[in-house]
Amino acid sequence: MAHLILKDVNKVYPNGFHAVHDFNLEIMDGEFICLVGSSGCGKSTTLRMIAGLEEITSGEFYIDGVLANQMSSRDRGIAMVFQSYALYPHLTVYENLAFGLMLEGIDADIIEEKVQATAKILGLTDYLERFPRQLSGGQCQRVAVGRVLIRKVNIFLMDEPLSNLDAKQRVTMRSEIKQIHRGVGATTIYVTHDQTEAMTMSDRIVVMKLGVVQQVGTPFELYFYPRNLFVAGFIGEPPMNFLHGKVEGGMLKLDGESETTLDISPIANDVEALEGKEVVFAFRPEAVNLVKEGEKAPKDGYTFSSQVELTELLGDNTNVYATVDGVNVILKINPHDTPERDTECVFNIPYKSAYLYDKETELAVETDIKRH
Fold it and tell me: Which of 8, 179, 269, 364 is most buried, judging by how many CB atoms fall within 10 Å of its CB?
């Protein structure tokens, strides 16, 4: 295991492009960290600086208290899994797993023992004599993970290792990688653009945008307490819904022809401080409760009427695409309650599931609401 510290780390390329801005993070022994964000956000660049494949322009990087900025990749005790597997096509699975150990001059008997043990963990025992071209994508990825695992290093780095797999293989490999991490205990940094991978695998998530860290926290913290609009919209599937408006007379007046007003005092600590400001009212698709005909809407929440445009039955739930005063929203509901297209749908959002963001700063409005 290893304890890592990145302090005010920046990456600026010779052409002036500033890829990573003042990156600060402490990673504890054995922790599983995910770096997430859209393409070009700097997550892979950060990983490559940790690996020693990219030079740190400024800032400090420590491994177990030792400054590692100028330390060679080989001396950092790091092993990396790439998106492209990077297997040797002319070598068998056994030879691919053993290759790194052979270069280190390790005795053949020890190599045999390590290869067999690693293959057993990864379910590759029956494939040791096969070549990569004879394997499925998921099996190739397990071999790539095995080459990292067999070296017994303290730090695993993984750069979008599942992006080449189909949906079913990704689900399987997510659980396998997590189980391997629990068994080995190595500090792991995992880069992905897929927020589902990050939510299901990590101890903590680092959300990045344009080279800047937006929020660091557990999956629970990022899902229930997103600190800004970007994190709120990035974490969650389908994404969070946003309705824009302005605070007037202590009430939020939503944009639109109907001039809907909402009492935001139950979800904002200081409504007076918001007077005259443009804010964003947000809620997650799965947070809504349908109000059926003849029923009364709960008083501890916000009730909206929407026009159903489209429905998607997904089995365990239905995504309802609707409009609220001309604004598109997505509702995630019980499939047995799926409304008809082109009908009116009334839904309620509990106070604990409603969010407010300052449109100018994009930061969450302070509230004491417990959201779980």
Answer: 364
